[in-house]
Amino acid sequence: MKKKIIALMAIIGLMTVLSGCTEYNQPITPESSGFWNEYIVWPLSQLITMVADWFNGSYGLAIIIVTLIIRFAILPLMIKQTKNSKAMQALQPEMKKLREKYSSKDAQTQQKLQQETMALFQTHGVNPLAGCFPLIVQMPILIGFYHAIVRTREIAEHNFLWFDLGERDIILAVVAGITTFIQQKLMMAGTADQNPQMAMMLYIMPVMIVIFAINFPSALSLYWVIGNIFMIVQTYFIKGPDIREVQAAKAKAGGSGGKKK
């Protein structure tokens, strides 16, 4: 699990570097050069501006609408990633048995463990790397939208609801943290006991989001909140049956325990 977390962080770090984060403080304009600026950030910036023009210059509403458009566009990838995660989770008992069977750390035994594990994946049609592909595809899109918000100077000059889009807002930052916690809680439902490292991230990530949100313009906090709400609804519909099954099993176990007493 530690290797998976390290690999995930490496992918995110690589995408961040490749996405041109060195230009974070430079406004995006038609003259901005480079593949990243010309084909990702500038078109997204123009899309935000165009939608804002449709709604009387409301850049806050434009951010909400474009966030939803992007989330719906990458929804098939997210569904694929979630299904692959569920398939991997279903194989955890079998993988645990294999690790117990080949517990010796010598090279020959570990090679046999790898062979048996790959055979298990092939038998059930599971690709352990399939969950990374959707992440690799969607990260440039999401980071590009992040850049478009920050580097479109018109956004910072407008208000939405009670806050200035170009200024920090503590209330919205806290809401971003709360929605991040709820979204991750749903994603990890039924797996926290099996993956203690991931369970730890359940509490670390919301705190990190709040810290980031407090130090960035509220336009980004708005983007995080809307994205999180979308993910909460999406996760509920995809993992809803599994969540209810886990809750029913716990209730049944608790009831049985009470009867025995």
Automatic annotation (TrEMBL):
InterPro entries: YidC/ALB3/OXA1/COX18, YidC/Oxa/ALB_C, YidC/YidC1/YidC2_Firmicutes, YidC_ALB_C
Signal peptide (from-to): none
Protein keywords: Cell membrane, Chaperone, Lipoprotein, Membrane, Palmitate, Protein transport, Signal, Transmembrane, Transmembrane helix, Transport
Principal location: membrane
Transmembrane segments: 59-79, 128-150, 170-187, 199-216
Localization per record: Cell membrane
Topology within the bilayer: Multi-pass membrane protein
Gene Ontology annotations of biological process type: protein insertion into membrane; protein transport
PROSITE patterns: PROKAR_LIPOPROTEIN
Function in brief: Required for the insertion and/or proper folding and/or complex formation of integral membrane proteins into the membrane. Involved in integration of membrane proteins that insert both dependently and independently of the Sec translocase complex, as well as at least some lipoproteins.
The family this protein is said to belong to: Belongs to the OXA1/ALB3/YidC family. Type 2 subfamily.
Name of the protein in question: Membrane protein insertase YidC
Species this protein is from: Rossellomorea aquimaris
